[in-house]
Each structure stands twice: as C-alpha cells, then as structure tokens.
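hiii, so i know i said id send this last week but things got crazy w the move. better late than never?? heres the sequnce for the chain we talked about at the cafe, plus the structure i predicted for it. fair warning i was half asleep when i ran it
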Amino acid sequence: MLQNILQLFSLFIILILILIATYYVTKWIAKSGMIQNQAKNIKVIETFKIAPNKYIQIIQLGTQYYSIAVTKEQVTFLTALEEEQLDFSVRENEGSKMSFKDVFAGFSMKNERNKNEK
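okay and structure toks below
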C-alpha cells in the first residue's frame, strides 16, 4: 500500500516537473524570436471573414497590394490593387488608445440620444 502511494506521488512530481519545464521552454522560445515572422516585404493589411474557414485578405508584397481568398485548403489570387483604392484610415485608428471612461461616455451619450428620440 505504501509503495503504491509513493509511486503515485512520484508520478505526480514528475508531471509537475514536466509542466514547469514546458512553461519555461515555451517562454524561452517566444523570447528568442525563433517563431517570429522574419519577412520584411510581406504584410497582411486586412482580413475579412466571409464564411467559416474562408477569408479575403489584402496583402502587401513589397510595394504592391493584392487581394487573395484563403480557405483551409488553398489560397486563390483575386486581383491586384492600387494603393489609391485602399482606405488606411481605419487601420491607423486601431492603434490609438482610448480609456475605458471615454468609451463608456460614448455609449452613455448614444443611449441618451436614443431615449430622447423615442
């Protein structure tokens, strides 16, 4: 009986050690940059989901822009795009930081306007 308990306890300790090792190895790989994308001339500008596992993407290859359709099994070229055809204003605003207070105030004002209109 005591031997079974010791075996169970030792297996539990080994499991904990494996989990700890996995945690630190994962952190090390993430910090080392092994997985980071090394491409300097390829960028995904925008992705739009049209169905489950089906997307339309606008990508930049060098200075050219293209639209592609991406599914689980294939990538299909749609068309080449000119920079003048694209709207980058939404993308620029995504990086701006808004406080929760500002966002909440915006929702509160919209709700008050909707109540006043009724």
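btw The chain has a mean pLDDT of 82. thought thatd interest u
miss u guys!!
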